[in-house]
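Morning!

As promised:
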Amino acid sequence: MKKKKQDKSQDRSKILDCLWDFQNQYGYIRDEDVAACSKDLDISQVELEGVISFYHFFHRQPAGQITIYLNNSIVSECKGFQRVKEAFERETGASFGGIDPSGQFGLYETACIGLSDQEPAALINFYPFTNLNTLKVRSIIARLKKGESPASFCDKIEEKIRWKPPKDKTIFFRDYYPGIAVSKLKDYSPEKIIEEIKKSKLSGMGGAFFPTGLKWEFCKNQPASPKYIVCNADEGEPGTFKDRALMNEIPGLMLEGMTVAGYAVGANQGIIYLRAEYIWLKEKLEQTLSHFRKMNLLGENVGGIKGFDFDIRIQLGAGAYVCGEETALLNSLEGKRGEPRTKQFFPTEKGFLHLPTVVNNVETFCAAARIIELGSEFYLNTGTANSPGTKLLSVSGDCHLPGIYEIEWGTQISDILEKCQATDPYFIQVSGPSGQCISNKELNRTIAKDDLPCGGSFMIFNENRDVLNILINFSEFFKHESCGVCTPCRAGNFIIQRKLNKISAGLAYSSDFEEVKEWGNIMKVTSRCGLGKAATNSLLMALDKFPEYFQSKVDHHKEGLNKAFHLEQAVQEYEKFNN
Amino acid sequence: MAKQNKQITITIDGKKIKTSPGENLVKAAKTNGIFIPSLCYFESNESPLGTCRVCTCNIDGKPSPACMEKTREGMEVEVNVDELKNYRKAIVEMMFSEGNHFCPGCEKSGNCDLQHMGYEMGVSRSRFPHIFKDRLIDFNPKRMIIEHNRCVKCRRCVEEVLTDDNLQVFSFCNRGNETVVGIDYEQEAKLSEEQALNAMHICPTGAILVRGQSFAKPFGDRRFDMKSVQKDYQKQLPPENPDKPREPKTIATISLAGCFGCHMSMLDIDLELLDLVEFVEFNKSPLNDIKEFTKRCDIGLIEGGCCNSENVEVLKEFRKKCDILVAVGECSIWGGLPAMRNTIPLRECLEEAYLNGITTEPGEYIVPYDTDLPKILDKVYSCNEIVEIDHYIPGCPPDAHHIWKAVMNLLWGEQYSVLYSEFKYD
Ligand SMILES: Cc1cc2nc3c(=O)[nH]c(=O)nc-3n(C[C@H](O)[C@H](O)[C@H](O)COP(=O)(O)O)c2cc1C
Ligand code: SF4
Ligand code: SF4
Ligand code: SF4
Ligand code: FES
C-alpha cells in the first residue's frame, strides 16, 4: 500500500490563519479561495473542505458584514437567552442560522464564549457585548445600522476578582512584576526547575490533573528536537472564564510560565492556542509579547541566559470545543481537522509535527511561574496536603456575585456559595457539563483532587431551574461539539438527546431511565476521547442525585403501550395534505 | 513490522497464548482462533484508525479498543465478558440506527462487514431508535456512487484512497452527527479503474460503489452467508425447561405494513408444519382467514410495521389479546423497506405516488382520502414504537426454522439454537 507523502507540514500549519484571512476579508470563504488555497498547499479540495467545515466560525456561504454570535450556554439560557435571541431577529430581520435579505447581518448561535459572569452575551464581529437585554439589543443594532463599528462601542471586559486568600496564600492574583520568574531561571538548571515543579505537586489545571513536573520531565527526556511548548488557551468548557481573567489581567505571567517550561525541557518555540472567542484578547497578548521581547524576556539569550532562545506566537482557533483536548489541539495547530488523535503516543513523545511537545493550560503555566518566583515551599503552604496551591473558580449562574474566586484547594462548597451569595442553590455544576453535578445535600464537600476536582467552571442553579432543561442544554452542547470520529459519541449524543426530550415531554416509563443509564455508560466506556467519555457524566449523576425530581417525570401505567406515540399526531400531516 | 523470533505470552480470557511481540492484538487473537469483533481495522493498515470502537476489550483491566494495542509480554486481555459483549453489540446497533441500512436492497449484502458483525454478535434489533436522517446518494463522481446512507464513518477510505499524486480523494466533512465522507470529484476522476475498485473493496459497507460493478453472487455464495468465524457460534435463547410436555397453544398472526413475505416464510418449514398443527391452534390469522379474535392467544406473530391508522389499531388489539408478542422480520422490528420513505416528507411521498408518478392514470390525480379508509401516518413506525414487543426475529424474511424454533421455545421452553446461516437480515 502506498504511503502518504510527508505533507508540507510547516506550510500547512498556516491553514487556519489563511482561512481566517478569507473569512475576515469576504465574510465567508469563497469557492475560488478554496481552489487557490488547496492548490497552494498541494492538498485536494475535499481535504480543505473537511478542515473548513470542522470549524464553527468558518463559513462557506456569506455570513453577513456584521456577524453576530449569541451564546446559547445554559447560563445564558437562564439569564434571558430566548428574549435576546428574538430581539436580535426582530431588529436585524435575519433568522438565526442565516443572514438578512440585504446581507448586512448574520445571526448564529454559539457555545459558551467565556463570558458566563455577564450573560446573555454575544460576539459581534468578535467584539464582546454583554449583559444583553431587549433594549440593549435594539440600541446596538441601531448604532450598527448607522455605521458605527462594533469595535468602537463594545463592552470592555473588566475582571471581577471577587475573592482571594490572605496575602501569604495568594498565588495568582497577587502583585505581578514582569520578569521575576524568568530572571530566576539563571539560578536553576533545567533539572532543578523540573525538580522544583515536582516538589510543588503542581498538576494540570485544564481538568485532567496530570502532574506537571512529570510531564515536563517526559518531554525533556525525549531525544527528538526541536521541542514545543503549547499553551492551551482554548477554554471551552461552558461556564469557565478563569483563563480569560488571567490573560486579561496578568498575561505576562502566562508567558513567563511558558518560558520556564521552555527552559526546563529545552524548547525554543512556544505557541498559544487561543480560542477564537477570545480574539478581543489577542491585541493585548501581542502587546505583551512585544513588550517582553523588548525586555529580553523573550527572544535570544532570554533572561541573560546564554544560548537560551525562546519565543512565542499565537495561533487562533476557529470555534471547536473539542480542540481543547490536547491531541485535537495539536491537529488543529497543524492545520487539520481538530479530531483527537488515537492515544498511541503522549504529546510529550509525538506532539506538534510529531515532535516532543508540552501542552499545558493557561492557569498551569501561571502557577508554574509563581512557583519559580515564590518557591515551592510557598506553594506547598497553601491548599491541602494532597492538593496544594490555589484554584481559580469561574462562578456564574444564580448568585449575586458572579466572577473569579481564587480559593485554596480544600475549600468547602458551602463556603464558596456564601462568598458569592448564592442564597438558594439547588443544582451545582462543578467543572462544567463534562464535570459533576451536586445537589444541595452535599454542600460540605470540598474542591479538592480527592473530593471534587474542579477545572474552573462553577455554575449555580436555584430551584426554579428545571434539571432536565439543564441536562438537555448540556446534551445539545456535546451533540454539537462531538468531532464525529467515533461511533459512541457521534451517534450516542444524538440518541441520548432524543431520549431526554422524550422524558422532558413526560412520555417516559421507568424503563426509559434504565436505558439512559445503560446508554450513557456505554458512551463513557467506549468513546475515544474525554468528550465522549464525559458527555453523560452529569446526566448519570443527576439521575442518582435527584431521584424525587426524576420520579415525578415517570409514568407508571404501561399496559403494554408506548405513550410517546399519538395517533392523532401521526396522521396530522396526512389530514393537512387532504384539507 | 520488524519480526522478532522471540515469542511472548499473553493471556486472553484466561487462556495463555504465544505470539510475537508488537503484533496487532486483533490479528494475534485471530491467528490463535480467538475472534475479536472489529470493523474499522483492516490488516494491511499499520496505524489503526480506532474509530468504530467495535473491538473494545479489557486490556490489563481497562476497557480500550483492541485494534489499537500491540502485544506485549504478560498482557491480560478479556474479550468475552458479558458486559463487554453488550457494549460491542450496542455499538453495532448504533451504526444500524444511525445510518439507513436496507440490507435486502443493498449491493453489498452478504459481503458487508457491518452486517457480518451484526450476525456474529446476534444483533436481532437495535435497542436505539432509528434516526432516519435524510442522506444523499451522490451520483456525481465519474466512476463511483457514494451511498451516504450506508457509511459508518470508519475512515478507511480517507486514509487509503489516494491519487498517484498522493492527494486525498475522500475526507471527513462537518462534525458531530453531521459528519459525512466528502469525495473530491476532480481527484476521483484521476483514479484508475483498479484504484476505484480498491476503494469499493476497502469500504466495509456498501457506501462506495463503482458503476457497472455489482457484488451479485447468489445467496449462500457470499462472503458472510454460511459460516461464523467463531468456533463456538451459538446464538439466542438459553434452554429453558426442555422436558416440558407440549400443552396445546393458540397462535395469532398478522401482516401489517409488510409484504406477506414473512408469512410465506412461516409456511416454509414444509412437513414440519403438520407436526406443529397438532399442538397449536391458529386464531386470528391470514393463514386461516379468521378475521376476528375469538379468544385470548398465547402468542401473536407480527409481520410489518405500522404505516396507517388501521395498522395501529390492529397492533394494539394484538397487544391486548396476546400474552407474548413477537416482531417477525425487519419491517416490524424497525420499519424495514417501507421505512425507506421515512427520510422523505409524507407530502412528497403522496405527490409522487398519486399525482406525479409515471404510473398515475391520466385524469386520476387524487390522493385517496375517505372516512372509510385508513389514514396514512407521517412515517412508518416500528411495532415497538407503538406497543411493547417481547421478542424480535430478524430477517427479510426471517428463515422459517428461525421463526418456529423461537416460537416453540417461547411456547414450551424447547431448547434450540439458531444456526449462523439461519440468522440473516436479507
Ligand atoms: C473535550 C476536552 C476539552 C478540553 N478542553 C480544554 C480546555 O479548553 N483548556 C484546557 O486547558 N484543557 C482542556 N482539556 C484538557 C486537555 O486535554 C489537557 O489535559 C490539558 O490541556 C493539559 O494541560 P494541564 O495539564 O495543564 O491541565 C480538554 C480535554 C477534553 C477531553
Ligand atoms: S469521543 Fe467524541 S469528540 Fe472524542 S473522538 Fe470520539 S467523536 Fe470525537
Ligand atoms: S449490507 Fe451492509 S451496507 Fe448494505 S444495508 Fe446492510 S448493513 Fe448496510
Ligand atoms: S465510505 Fe466506506 S470506507 Fe469510507 S468511511 Fe464510509 S464506510 Fe468507511
Ligand atoms: S476495529 Fe478497533 S476501533 Fe474499529
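Residues 66-153 of chain A form a domain with the Glutaredoxin fold (CATH 3.40.30.10).

Hope this helps with the figure draft.
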